[in-house]
């Protein structure tokens, strides 16, 4: 599908228009100049003064036309970047409207293509905008549906009840620790995850680097009186290392990090049931870690095989019971809607199986075709459900969680997600993961340690975000962790010490 855009000279429009087009069509190409090879042509008339006034007329090869207009005042004293953002939103507004009319598809998230819609609502609350006006603005400016606005509100309310001081946590940090190993690599995976077998040398060096990072960063936090809100071990699968290695790692955490006893939450992903053993559960218990994640993804054996997860459905259930019997009292489970070969029938089975276990929290993902995954590279091999069926499954998840006492408490979206839907974290009240709220709402700095770990530095005053990523593969990490640690300490010093000298 070629979409020919006329009347917009600024090339910065290209990407947002491309992202919105992807919500409607597979394989779209946006061409921003005169071109005869088009399926759809959209003529824009854009005027910008103290107002932005924009009109779009879409024509197709059959001679059908659809048009839309939008006008709003531009706020005063905007930076160039923010001014362009407002203009871009106005352009997206009419563009989405004509595409909706042309295709008959309504995008429930409107023009939003970003990852964190709830941040918009948090920002409005922080600015003191009353609830009904905030909702009205979300609807008018971004064309978000009432259904999604109400979901956003429900989630924001929940988050503020779980973390009432959410907006004041900017002077603390959370820590993410990335362990880049898994028993085997799943087909949809783009995480830094390397099959662990035969890599013991690499694991040893990696852990050496990780301990170093934990010591250095922990020392800095202690010296500067900065508290830790949450710690999250992810990856990869952090339980793919041995029980002894886990033991030493948590000992390091207790020795190096400040005031570990008062950290609000420590989570360890034990995603792959094939990595869970009584010895490892003992180690978790020893270090008072009681929030883990065991991820079935699906309860259909053929699906697990097709996506490269070399464990059985029975193993998930068995390890869940084992973890329970050994005192894990906050277990999260991840499910994925729209895995290859799965539709309403299969998902319904998965929900029935979940009912037998009733984990404290349940994260429902919608399958996303990420560019680097094996699944995306071999798309023909993996047949997935269509948009309507994916929407039905999402609805089933909503109803099922509601009927079983779970509440939604965080959500995020991804590019190329099936049906342009979202991933939603549900939880029994009081069992929400605080780290998930922190990572989604970007109210505080998250320091990433280990392989593939991204750090997100949030300026305590301006809220400005700086990203910093550790290397993804263990080899590069092992060669450079000292340098990366130094860089992070430098950023932390600029961020927090300047802030306290200003205070
Ligand atoms: S278990 Fe998770 S991190 Fe590991 S390969 Fe599968 S999806 Fe990737």
Looking at CATH, the homologous superfamily of the largest domain is tm_1862 like domain
Radius of gyration: 24 Å
Unreliable segments of 5+ consecutive residues: none
The coarse silhouette is globular
* Average of per-residue pLDDT values: 92
Number of strands: 18
The main β sheet shows up as: 9 strands, mixed
Q: What are the bound molecules?
A: iron/sulfur cluster
CA-CA gap between termini = 55 Å
Total tally of structural domains: 3
Task: Report the sheet-strand fraction.
Answer: 15-25%
Pfam families: Radical_SAM
GO molecular function: 4 iron, 4 sulfur cluster binding; coproporphyrinogen dehydrogenase activity
EC number: 1.3.98.3
Protein name: Oxygen-independent coproporphyrinogen-III oxidase 2
List keywords for this structure.
4 iron, 4 sulfur cluster binding, 3 domains, five-stranded mixed sheet, alpha/beta, Rossmann fold, nine-stranded mixed sheet, oxidoreductase, binds iron/sulfur cluster, 503 residues, Oxygen-independent coproporphyrinogen-III oxidase 2, pyruvate-formate lyase- activating enzyme, coproporphyrinogen dehydrogenase activity
Question: Can you put this structure into words, describing what you see?
Answer:
With 503 residues, the protein is an alpha/beta fold. It has three domains: 105 residues, 3-Layer(aba) Sandwich (Rossmann fold), CATH 3.40.50; 52 residues; 332 residues, pyruvate-formate lyase- activating enzyme (Alpha-Beta Horseshoe). The protein has 15 helices and 18 strands. The strands form four sheets. Strands 14-15-13-12-11-10-9-6-16 form a nine-stranded mixed β-sheet, sandwiched between helices. Helix 3 packs across helix 5 and helix 6 packs parallel to helix 15. The longest helix is centred in the C-terminal third of the chain and has 29 residues. The model has no long low-confidence stretch (mean pLDDT 92). Bound molecules: iron/sulfur cluster (SF4).
């Amino acid at each position: 599908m070629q979409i020919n855009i006329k009347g917009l000279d600024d090339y910065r429009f290209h990407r947002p228009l491309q992202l919105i087009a992807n919500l409607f069509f597979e394989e779209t190409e946006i061409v921003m100049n005169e071109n005869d090879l088009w399926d759809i042509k959209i003529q824009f008339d854009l005027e910008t003064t103290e107002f932005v006034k924009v009109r779009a007329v879409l024509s197709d090869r059959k001679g059908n036309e659809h048009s839309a207009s939008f006008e709003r005042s531009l706020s005063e004293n905007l930076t160039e970047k923010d001014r362009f953002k407002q203009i871009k939103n106005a352009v997206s507004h009419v563009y989405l409207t004509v595409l909706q009319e042309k295709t008959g598809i309504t995008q429930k998230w409107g023009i939003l293509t970003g990852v964190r819609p709830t941040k918009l609502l948090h920002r409005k609350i922080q600015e003191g905008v009353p609830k009904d006006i905030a909702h009205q603005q979300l609807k008018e400016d971004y064309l978000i549906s009432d259904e999604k606005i109400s979901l956003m509100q429900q989630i924001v309310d929940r988050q503020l009840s779980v973390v009432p001081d959410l907006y004041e946590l900017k002077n603390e940090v959370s820590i993410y620790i990335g362990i880049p190993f898994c028993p085997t690599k799943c087909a949809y995976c783009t995480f830094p995850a390397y099959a662990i077998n035969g890599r013991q040398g690499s694991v040893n060096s990696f852990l050496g680097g990780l301990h170093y990072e934990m010591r250095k960063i922990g020392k800095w936090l202690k010296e500067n009186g900065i508290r830790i809100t949450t710690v999250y071990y992810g990856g990869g699968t952090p339980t793919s290392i041995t029980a002894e290695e886990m033991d030493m790692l948590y000992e390091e955490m207790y020795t190096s990090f400040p005031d570990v006893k008062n950290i609000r939450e420590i989570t360890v992903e034990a995603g792959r049931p094939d990595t869970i053993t009584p010895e490892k559960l003992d180690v978790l218990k020893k270090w008072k870690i009681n929030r883990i994640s065991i991820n079935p993804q699906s309860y259909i054996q053929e699906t697990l095989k097709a996506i490269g997860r070399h464990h059985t459905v029975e193993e998930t259930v068995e390890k869940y019971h084992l973890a329970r019997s050994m005192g894990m009292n906050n277990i999260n489970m991840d499910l994925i809607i729209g895995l290859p070969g799965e539709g309403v029938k299969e998902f319904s089975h998965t929900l029935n199986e979940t009912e037998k276990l009733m984990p404290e929290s349940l994260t429902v993902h919608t399958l996303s075709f990420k560019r680097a995954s094996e699944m995306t590279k071999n798309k023909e091999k993996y047949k997935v459900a269509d948009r309507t069926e994916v929407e039905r499954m999402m609805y089933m998840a909503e109803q099922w969680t509601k009927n079983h006492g779970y509440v939604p408490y965080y959500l995020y979206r991804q590019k190329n997600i099936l049906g342009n839907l979202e991933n939603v974290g549900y939880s029994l009240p009081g069992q929400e993961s605080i780290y998930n709220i922190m990572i989604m709402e970007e109210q505080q700095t998250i320091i990433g340690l280990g392989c593939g770990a991204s750090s997100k530095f949030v300026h305590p005053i301006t809220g400005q975000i700086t990203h910093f990523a550790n290397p993804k593969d263990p080899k590069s990490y092992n060669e450079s962790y000292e340098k990366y640690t130094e860089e992070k300490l430098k950023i932390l010093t600029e961020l927090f010490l300047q802030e306290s000298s200003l205070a």
